[in-house]
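User: Run a structure prediction on this.
Assistant: Running it now.
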Amino acid sequence: MNQKSKFLLIALVAISIASVGIISITTDNAETYNEKTINDGGYTLVHDLYLTTDLEEIRDLSQDIVKGTIVSKTAILEYRDTEGNFLDADSKNIAVTEPYTVYELSTEKSVKSKDNQYKDLYTFKVFGGEINGNKMITDVPEFKEGDKVVVILTEAFDGKHQELVSGGFGIYKIEDGNALGRENNMTEKELLETLTQ
């Protein structure tokens, strides 16, 4: 393994731990890491990190569950030091630079809300995205403005955003009355019934 690959692997592990905090995972399907080469000249390491694939467990881990429409999508970079602390872009101690995509979601229906504080607009980030022609592809599919989705959210480690519970397993695209998930597809009605129990 060359020096660049070692650095990327160490950075990925640090990112993964930092994004979910220090956790004790007890499920059989707790973690999956995949390495792949991307041929677009961008990043070369792809990862999947999830706590669980079970929809009821994902629901129980969430703070907010919202159905709505994606109204904006913005690529950002976050910077960290060697200990995983967040830094400003002009800091001299940057060890890891992480690409994220921040989505804004206009609320159609709130299924669950932390402290019953329902909002008209939710903002959440997902790991990966495209910055300056470099693309990081992760387990979460890309969405565009106008897409209807159900998101299962929790507070992100940075304290500023929310993020999906269990990565790509915490979002469903709604099309023609169906909820299309990473592995599970069902009707929208079935999904919302499961999430409200």
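The chain has three helices and eleven strands.
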